[in-house]
Amino acid sequence: MALLANILIDGIAYGMVLFIIAVGLSVTLGLMRFVNLAHGAFAMTGGYLASWLVGLQGLPFAIGVPIAVALTGLIGALLEVLVLRRLYRRSELQQVLFTIGLTFLFVATANFLAGPEVKLIALPGWLKTPVDLGIRTLPAQRLLVIAAGLVVLVLSAWVMGRSRFGVWLRATVDNTGAAASLGIPVKRVYALTFGFGAALAGLGGILGAELMPLEPYYPIKYLVLVLVVVAVGGMGSINGSAAAALALGIIETASKYLASDWGSVFFFLAMVLFLACRPHGLLVARRA
Amino acid sequence: MSVPLLETRQLCKSFGGLHVTRDINLSLLAGDKVGLIGPNGAGKTTLINLITGMLPPSAGSVHLGGEDISHLSQAQRVRRGLVRTFQITQLAPTLPVGRQVEMAIHEREGSIGRMWKPLHAYQNVQDEALAILQSLRMASLSCRAPIELAYGEQRMVEVALAMALRPRVLLLDEPMAGVPPGERQVVLDALASLPSNLAILMIEHDIDLVFNFADRMLVLAEGALLAEGSPLEIRRHAAVRSAYLGEEA
Amino acid sequence: MPNLSPNAQQLWRQFLPYAVLMAIAGFIYFYFPDQLPLAARIVAIAIFVMSLDLVVGYGGLATLGHSALYGAGAYAAGLLAMHVSANPLLGLLVGACAGAVLAGISGLFLLRYEGLTFLMLTIAISQIVQNLASKFRDWTGGDDGLSGFMVDKILGLASFDLQGRVAFVYCFVVMVICLWLMRRLMASPFGLACMGIHQNRQRMAALGTQIRWQLLKLYILSGVFAGISGALAAQVAQIVGLDTLGFELSAEALVMLVLGGAGNLWGALVGTIIFASIHHWASTLNPYHWLFIIGGMLMLMVLLRERLGRALSARLHALRRTVSPITVRTSA
Questions:
Q1: How far is residue C134's CA from residue A115's CA, in Å, rounded to a whole number?
Q2: Which residues from C are below 8 Å from A when comparing CB atoms?
Q3: Domain limits of chain B?
Q4: What pTM, to 2 d.p., does this model score?
Q5: How many domains does chain C have?
Q6: C332 within a domain of the structure (yes/no)
Q7: Are B194 and B156 in contact (CB under 8 A)?
Q8: By CA distance, what is C290's nearest residue in A?
Q9: Could you read off the pLDDT of A178-204 as tens digits, one per residue?
Q10: What is the C-alpha radius of gyration for chain A, rounded to an integer number of angstroms?
Q11: Distance, in angstroms, between B18 CA and closest chain C CA?
């Protein structure tokens, strides 16, 4: 029973991390139709920045992390403005190749600047203490991750569905020319969306540093995971990404606890099943 | 009374509550040239998609030469002689025209899956492809790829492919769509050179063209057959005029 | 060639690239004898990238899971040599069958999907295979890999020498045969159908093509050659590791293919040689610096493609006409 609870909690936490990282990719891939395989690099960047700010610079966790997230978002937005927006009209294969090259650059730069060892983010005392929720006690870090995931889910859904920015984004994606002529600041919308996605990825990288260790090969190692969440959840569907991330996170955690020598077989089997039954996304019923 | 070459019985299609095709009964004999007209959104292309098997019907059946083909796949119907052309030209953009016609012939002959003999060893296929292109006065285009061709010429390649399949029934979906005035004659000549024992159903917006081409007219409006008759009768038909022709000056 | 008949001219045009290839191979054999083991490995991988070209370049199916077929061939050949027979040609045959069987089974499932879904599923299948190989380490050696198998003399003639001379000749001969076979098979009506499916599925359906069946044949064919290349690499290296089933290999192969140009098999060979050579040279430096180089190359390639593309394409087009599988008939 305790095992089941552990699996659930760790699984949900893992799923939340995957979701927070993946949501930006789901939006850029699904709505902006831009294949950015370098997305994992943003997660790594956020983690590395947090590790540097909190570890080497001595900033408190609660200050260093938001700064790291904001910086990552800034890097993402700058990248979009300076380089990536030239590629929107290129073919998918070209976008794939370019962003793979970009990923390699991030990996090599991380090694160049910080060396090949795993980077740890020192958790402050208040995150290491267990929190008593009444039914059971949880490590505070897990609670933070789960809470962060929920906040991101609710906020993204609100922004996309209800806010003016969300309307702008959907209009821009549907018909850039028409949106521009309506006075929507198209370039700013793209840059902001990309920046937010990158920032969220950075946050995910920070929160998931325990489960997905920060080292130079991070973007390549975990690219597949993030792509899986996006594909299974359905490109562009935030709720779908959340559902996919949680389901897959729990399955992967369970298999680590119960059948570790099988590796990730069940994760990928589950992925195959989900995609086979719902090729357009977990929450999207089969189109007629 | 001969068996109709193409027949639909009570063919219906709805998407949820939206009835796109209602109770269509039509029948074509060999040599029939039937024009299908109707306002935009009447369901003309949907009807073709239903007949060819691209879209499954909600009710009703399709028969080819007396055989019920309602459960056959699109590919199986093509092999039985039911061929269509597309409203927006669908060609392999960079394969040479001659090769595409050869491809159609290989499909027809069933040799498309053969892996050993190279294409140039099939001399009779190459000769036939050239002959088809020559009959359409397109032999000089044989080595060119569709992206290099003018739109009217691309439409003609579609006709060439259709002919290469030796259809019994040919469904033409707006063959003149998008063809600039200067190239229309080429397409018209191609249509005129089609074999006379073919049953042809043509959708067209160009009223003059379809009235000159067809022996019989079908008028579709809101998914149902509004009227049927000779071109002259249709021209005079009151309901048709108000629903369709009446909208024009 | 004014004195040769049109048929002879055709034959000469087809033979010329192979002649050039053999000249290059001879050059490497005699002037770079200490690079032969590396060259042998590059040649083996080239077959793998060519097999990928069949699926990606001809069939238009973007896949990132092709390494599963390669690894299947590698492990099959290794296990055969270890437990049954050390005959290298038999190993190639078994590798081909392993690749074909895996391609057939996975293709039956995969080809029901298209686009991104198909791509993701190919990743999933190959990850499942890799994880299973890790699980059944009694058979595969797990993380340590499969090793300790020896390979007999080829055709009873030559055994592998330490300098890699025999290995290089062996790999090169196999590669040329595979290249010739693949080009021949794609010059058939079947190859034309695959290209048609790649360029316009709707058109092919309207011609009556059984699309999924032809694509399955293509996938299995690709599996045959991927399996052969894996078996070849296993025999030459005499070790098989889990990385033969990894995502990195699939991704690298795709990069090699695009580097050289997809759709005519020669590009696969060229791309492999370029990529592997740069990789080898750059990895003598810091292994991470290699990523700077390849990353920069990829980005530049894409950014400059527009400008370079137009300039090169006219010249390449003319060149490709002479090596293209769809040879343009000279007018009768």
A1: 29
A2: 62, 109, 113, 116-117, 120-121, 123-125, 127-128, 131-132, 134-135, 247-248, 251, 255, 258, 286, 288-289, 291-292, 294-299, 301-303, 305
A3: 6-247
A4: 0.88
A5: 1
A6: no
A7: no
A8: A108
A9: 877 888 888 888 899 899 999 999 999
A10: 19
A11: 26
Q: Give the separation between CA C162 and CA C150, rounded to whole angstroms.
A: 13
Nearest to C302 among A94, A108, A271 (CB): A94
The predicted complex's ipTM stands at 0.88
Which residues, including other chains, have CB under 8 Å from residue A282's CB and lie 6 or more apart?
A: A232, A233, A234, A237, A240, A243, A244, A247, A274
Residue C302 lies in a domain: no
Domain holding A76: CATH number?
1.10.3470
Size of chain B in residues: 249
Domain B6-247: give its CATH architecture. Answer: 3-Layer(aba) Sandwich (3.40)
Tokens of B20: 């796109």
Nearest-CA distance A97 → chain C (Å): 6
Give the number of other CB atoms < 10 A from CB of residue A178: 11
Query: Are C120 and A235 within 8 A, CB to CB?
Result: no
Of C219, C260, C236, C243, residue with least CA distance to C174: C236
Domain count, chain A: 1
The model's pLDDT over A84-131, given as tens digits with 9 standing for 90+, comes to 888 888 877 788 889 989 999 999 999 889 888 888 888 887 777 887
pLDDT digits (tens, 9 = 90+) for B178-236: 888 877 887 788 888 888 889 999 998 888 888 888 899 998 888 888 888 888 888 88
Residue A288 lies in a domain: no
Domain that holds residue A40: 2-277
Q: At what angle do helices B97-109 and B151-164 cross, to 10 degrees?
A: 20
> By the 8 A CB rule, do C203 and C196 touch?
yes
Neighbors of chain A by Cβ distance (3+ pairs < 8 Å): C
Instruction: Choose the closest CB to A265 out of C116, C135, C289.
Output: C135
How many angstroms separate the Cα of C77 from the Cα of each of C71, C99, C139?
10, 11, 13
User: Residue C184: which residues within 8 A CB-CB, separation 6 or more?
Assistant: B116, B118
Nearest CB to C206 within list B90, B112, B115: B90
CATH of the domain at C149: 1.10.3470
Write phi, then psi, for B25 (nearest 5 degrees): -115, 115
C50 lies in some domain: yes
- Examine residue A59 and state whether it is found in any structural domain, yes or no: yes
Domain for residue A46, yes or no? Answer: yes
Nearest residue in C to B72, CA atom: C208
Partner residue opposite A275 with nearest CB, options C120, C134, C294: C120
